[in-house]
Design a protein that fits this description.
Elements: H1 23-45, H2 54-81, H3 85-106, H4 109-125, H5 131-146, H6 153-178, E1 183-187, H7 196-201, E2 203-205, E3 209-213, H8 216-225, H9 229-241, H10 246-264, H11 269-274, H12 282-318, H13 331-343, H14 347-351, H15 356-371, E4 373-377, E5 389-395, E6 404-411, E7 423-428, E8 431-432, E9 438-439, E10 442-446, H16 462-480, H17 500-505, H18 512-518, H19 530-539, H20 544-563, H21 570-582, H22 612-628, H23 635-646, H24 654-662, H25 669-676
Parallel strand pairs: 6-10
Antiparallel strand pairs: 1-3, 2-3, 4-5, 5-6, 7-10, 8-9
Keywords: Hydrolase, Metal-binding, Metalloprotease, Protease, Zinc
InterPro entries: MetalloPept_cat_dom_sf (IPR024079), Neurolysin/TOP_dom2 (IPR024077), Neurolysin/TOP_N (IPR024080), Pept_M3A_M3B (IPR045090), Pept_M3A_M3B_dom (IPR001567)
GO molecular function, one term: metal ion binding
């Protein structure tokens, strides 16, 4: 897989990572880098006040932290992807050590004293700092304040201990998610309706059963196609219950966050987190979510009515009782049927046109055209698993090393002990070196797409295609950013903006010109016919009310956890909100399951920020409609996007980047027109 075309193969100015670390090396390297970082911070802390300036303090801190991250990030990445138990154990141990040290480092009041001295001296001398350098000063000072470095010594000690315990609890939650190996066994009769090709791909077990894991490629076909509601209910129950081990872990996480909040002088953890986000406060987040819920509710009610009518007919066909309830395990099944009947959406026919070995290079070619980039597979790459591909990324017209962008890894197919969803890791950030050159970024996309084999073309659903397109957007954000400092590189932007660029790019998967380019039937090699493409385009806003109400429900659940000042029963809140907000019925109370145990966002940087998925959509729709809609593959629009949104990363205020891109402040008109077929009203909080 390569998009090199006829360009000459160039030698990258930076060698590729060799993923041949041993458990012993991981431990030794982690300890060495922590020692070096501690010594660097010691030197900064010992500076006389007169010697504290931008270079000796702010640049020195960010340089030390950049080196630590650059050298250790690959070591702890093994936690998510390695099939080697010893290597994973070493990686987990290294992450625990680094988490503990990060608390120590951020709680160093002696270093913060030098920060404040440098800030004071800068105000007096008024050096000619660039906007990115001034942002570095502002962010560093704010971080010290938010870390509690202004607290009395006794309280700082308590906070340090709490933060260490919190980091460990969050890692325990994530490790449980990564190492989950659950499954359910079904007879072929129980899976009636599931495509035979899918059933053939499941592992055969005794008693004429097949094994369905809780990995997405296994579970989704059951939820979408199994005719027997008992099968879907059992699959859903197992999935919701598979990480109940995380219930006490989440209780501990929330308790520690509440204690930290109290020491830091914030009302709630949400108030603490959102202070430094675009939305600024939990009150604004709640207002946004409630406003979106109110707009979506009548749409969701209509969607629910349509699906119930379909369910009634289906129950008659299958000769099973109809109880006039839409259950959570019904939704995917009837959503699929609704699309088939309403817009003639034949998911299996469409899926047959998306073999992985066609879609993946085709999507990469779309990005090549749009962003003026290309990738070349690294020969003889040393990676963590045979499925992984390592690429060097270049400007499309690069003729020398100045056109090098960085390295991309693709780890796309499911296996045990691997991260269970889809995500991109910015493993190493790019930055400007002391000699004016560059240290280049390293990114990795991890997914769980159907794997092509000799007997299976690895067919992807359209949802899979959208996911791949979305995640590649994050990968290119990391590769095309060009900041002076690593801490502002790529996706190092506000959490409630980070999804907007990739959400914007999902629109390409509903454009005829793109669908024609990325589809080829695995047997005939013909692209999707016009009627199938039309079905995909029309299906986009079918059942949109129920779909986005689920996002609102999870966002409100997240806010409920992190605005509560007392212990909260997360399992009860998870199930209560699902029924009241998302309009689908779950289990009876005695059977409630802790489905939140698999939501890694709650400990993986989205705490009190899950609303951001919907919040950033408003910006994403405006960017697409304004700049790309007329010509989605326009290289000129792609260059504008690359220069205004991707290149600056977090080196400036995100709204400034959006305003430069659009030529004006963003608004909600495109979002509301798409979802509600209405114009933005002056009273809208969206």
């Amino acid at each position: 897989m390569s998009t090199a075309d006829n360009n000459p193969r160039l030698t990258p100015p930076q060698p590729a990572i060799k993923w041949n670390h041993t458990p012993e090396l991981i431990k030794t390297k982690t300890d060495e880098e922590i020692t070096a970082n501690r010594q660097a911070l010691d030197s900064i802390a010992n500076l006389p006040k007169a010697d504290c300036n931008f270079q000796s303090v702010f640049e020195a801190i960010t340089k030390a932290n950049t080196v630590l991250s650059k050298e250790t990030s690959p070591l702890i990445f093994y936690t998510h992807v390695t099939p080697n138990d010893d290597l994973r154990a070493a990686s987990i141990a290294a992450e625990e050590t680094l988490d503990k040290y990060s608390v120590e480092a951020e709680m160093r009041v002696d270093v913060y004293r030098s920060v404040l001295n440098a800030e004071e001296n800068i105000k007096e001398t008024n050096p000619n700092l660039t906007p990115e350098q001034r942002r570095l000063v502002e962010k560093t000072v704010l971080e010290g304040k938010r870390a509690g470095l202004g607290l009395p010594e006794t309280e700082r000690g308590k906070l340090k201990t709490l933060k260490e315990e919190l980091a460990k609890a969050c890692q325990d939650f994530s490790n449980n998610c990564n190492q989950e190996k659950g499954y359910m066994d079904f007879t072929v009769e129980q899976l009636r309706g599931v495509p035979q090709k899918t059933i053939d791909g499941y592992k055969k077990v005794e008693d004429d059963k097949v094994r369905v894991t809780f990995k997405t490629p296994d579970t989704v076909p059951v939820m979408k196609y199994a005719e027997l509601p008992e099968t879907r209910k059992a699959m859903f129950a197992g999935s919701e219950d598979r990480l109940k081990i995380n219930v006490p872990v989440m209780d501990k996480v929330l308790d520690l966050r509440r204690q930290c909040t109290e020491l830091l002088g914030y009302d709630t953890w949400a108030q603490y987190v959102l202070e430094d986000r675009m939305i600024k406060s939990p009150e604004k987040a709640a207002e946004f979510l409630e406003d979106l819920r109110e707009k979506l509710h009548p749409v969701g009610v209509a969607d629910r009515k349509a699906l119930l009518e379909l369910k009634k007919s289906e129950c008659e066909r299958l000769n099973i009782p109809f109880d006039n309830e839409l259950y959570v395990w019904d939704w995917r099944y009837y959503d699929r049927l609704y699309a088939e009947k309403t817009v003639n959406m034949d998911n299996e026919f469409i899926k047959a046109h998306f073999p992985a070995n066609v879609v993946i290079p085709a999507v990469l070619d779309i990005y090549k055209q749009l962003l003026n980039v290309r990738i070349e597979e690294v020969p003889n790459a040393v990676v963590w698993h045979e499925d992984v591909k390592q690429y060097a990324a270049w400007d499309l017209d690069a003729t020398d090393q100045s056109g090098f962008l960085g390295y991309l890894h693709l780890d796309l197919f499911p296996r045990q002990n691997k991260y269970g969803h889809a995500a991109v890791w910015g493993l190493i950030s790019g930055y400007e070196t002391d000699d004016g050159g560059r240290s280049y970024p390293v990114t990795c996309m991890v997914a769980n797409l159907a794997k092509p084999t000799d007997n299976d073309p690895g067919l992807l659903s359209h949802d899979d295609v959208v996911t791949f397109f979305h995640e590649m957007g994050h990968a290119w954000h990391g590769l095309l950013s060009r900041t002076k400092y690593a801490r502002f590189h790529g996706t190092s932007v506000s959490r409630d903006f980070v999804e907007a660029p990739s959400q914007m790019l999902e629109n390409w998967c509903f454009e005829r010109v793109v669908l024609e380019k990325i589809s080829r039937h695995h047997e005939t090699q013909l692209p999707l016919p016009d009627e199938a493409i039309e079905s995909i385009i029309k299906s986009r806003y079918l059942d949109v009310g129920l779909f986005y109400l689920r996002q609102v429900y999870i966002g409100m659940f997240d806010q409920a956890l992190h605005t509560s000042k007392e212990k909260i029963n997360a399992t009860e809140k998870w199930n209560e909100l699902r029924e009241t907000i998302s309009l689908v019925k779950g289990f009876e109370k005695a059977m409630w399951k802790p489905g939140f145990g698999s939501v890694g966002h709650l400990v993986g940087g989205y705490d009190a920020q899950y609303y951001g998925y919907a919040y950033s959509l408003v910006i994403a729709y405006d960017m697409y409609e304004t700049i790309f809609k007329a010509d989605p593959l326009s290289p000129a629009a792609g260059k504008r996007y690359r220069d205004s949104i991707l290149k600056p990363g977090g080196s400036r205020d995100e709204l400034a980047s959006v305003e430069e891109f659009l030529g004006r402040p963003y608004n909600a008109e495109a979002f509301q027109k798409a979802l509600f077929n209405s114009d933005a009203s002056s009273g809208s909080h969206l």
